[in-house]
Design brief:
heterodimer; A: 249 residues; mainly alpha; Ferritin; 10 helices; B: 167 residues; alpha/beta; GMP Synthetase, Chain A, domain 3; 4-stranded mixed beta sheet; 4 helices; 21% strand
Chain lengths: 249, 167
């Protein structure tokens, strides 16, 4: 297995799938400013995915392009974590998913900046600034909704309880994660986990939300075993390239 | 269009690049914006090295096309444009001339950075209103019409305005 290719795709697929999910909010946000905010996050993530896919295509060296990576791979080839493919639900649920991922994404990119792989380090340095804004945004909304009305509190607590089972996977190293860490290219997920735990505990406390105590955790995304939702995302996202191969603007 | 045979100087190329503007903020040239990182000139032609402001900035493709077109118009066909990501662009790369042009255009330029941009809840700095100069302003949304801007409003003159956010 080409671990560098696999590792780059793991990072890229997280960004693309979450970016695509957020793009589904375009024109549906609760108010104009939040519609714009969610699609801004989407744009950043899809931009990060492009840089990563360009690099993945180069590492692979088979003449594929960034578009081939996004549009012509199948469900089991995608290596994103299950959390990012979960459905948007209401605005509160989207915010919970975003917060749980942002709290991981920021320390992940911070560590990846020190990667021995120059391209991944450069992409991380660039993306880190964007992700900083994302975490600030999702944290503020966690607090506003959690410590808001009875209804907003109930909705984000429910979403938190439902999405919690997908959080352990973020920190479970795949064979690729382990190989890349050993080579000084990848990130130590144990260190990222402790940063994540302290961010999450602090924001949930301020937001008056309960950290779920469920021990049962779902995983499989990094190995290509996905929830039912990814197939629907790909069906929509890849439709044009599958029906009209090579179509361009 | 004349094809020039002798090698140009770097300053000549930079002079031509002064005519290439940001498609989203047309008062700024790409030199003002600070995204031109280098110019390489050799027998094979001219290479311009640029860096994106944001990863997903949709203007980058247009900027690349416009750079090549401007150089072709001045007699340098087949120029190459290379994109690099590191060192990452920050708003500190905006030139002083660029900051003044932004203000005149009605976009508040970024407040000079000094504090830690990675702090989770930093206190928002006072952004002077580009219309009346008052610092009685407030943020409406961190995210605006383009990736590089936030939405603000002035509580003195009541005008809404864009803020080119610190990055």
């Amino acid at each position: 297995m080409n671990h560098l290719l696999n590792y780059t795709l793991q990072i890229a697929d997280n960004a693309l799938i979450l970016g695509h999910r957020l793009s589904e909010w375009c024109g549906h946000g609760p108010i104009l400013e939040q519609d714009i905010a969610l699609t801004n996050l989407s744009l950043d993530l899809v931009g990060q995915a492009r840089s990563l896919y360009q690099y993945a295509a180069k590492v692979e060296g088979h003449g594929r392009t960034e578009d081939d990576m996004a549009y012509l791979r199948d469900e089991m080839d995608f290596k994103n974590v299950l959390l990012v493919e979960q459905k948007n639900g209401d605005f509160g649920r989207t915010i919970v998913r975003q917060f749980l991922f942002d709290a991981y994404h920021l320390p992940f990119y911070e560590a990846l900046q020190r990667s021995h792989d120059e391209t991944l380090a450069a992409i991380a340095e660039k993306s880190l600034k964007e992700v900083t804004y994302h975490l600030r945004y999702s944290s503020e909304w966690m607090i506003r909704l959690g410590d808001g009305t009875e209804e907003s509190h109930r909705r984000v607590q429910t979403a938190l309880d439902e999405l919690w089972r997908y959080t352990a996977e973020l920190f479970q190293p795949s064979a690729t994660d382990e190989a890349m860490l050993a080579e000084g290219i990848g990130v130590d997920l144990g260190a990222v986990k402790s940063r994540w735990e302290s961010t999450v505990a602090e924001i949930l406390r301020v937001a008056t939300l309960q950290q779920p105590d469920s021990n049962w955790m779902q995983n499989g995304g990094k190995a290509g075993r996905h929830t039912e939702h990814l197939g629907y995302i790909l069906a929509e996202m890849q439709y044009l390239q599958r029906v009209h191969p090579g179509a361009e603007w | 269009m004349a094809v020039i045979s002798s090698l140009p100087t770097k300053d000549e190329i930079l002079g031509i690049l002064e005519s290439v503007c940001d498609p989203e903020i047309p008062v700024l040239t790409i030199i003002d914006l600070g995204i031109v990182r280098g110019v390489n000139i050799d027998e094979a032609g001219v290479e311009v090295v640029i860096t994106p402001t944001y990863s997903g900035c949709p203007a980058m493709n247009t900027i690349e096309i416009n750079i090549r077109a401007a150089l072709e118009d001045h007699g340098y066909p087949n120029a190459r444009v290379k994109t690099i990501l590191s060192p990452a662009w920050t708003t500190d790369w905006l030139s002083d001339a660029g900051r003044e042009k932004l203000r005149e255009y009605g976009i508040a330029p970024p407040v000079r950075s000094s504090q830690d941009k990675l702090a989770l809840f930093q206190t928002e700095r006072k952004v002077p209103c580009p219309n009346c100069g008052s610092t009685a302003t407030e943020m409406v949304s961190q995210f605006g019409s383009t990736a590089c801007k936030s939405l603000y409003r002035c509580t003195s003159c009541l005008e809404p305005f864009d803020y080119f956010k610190c990055h």
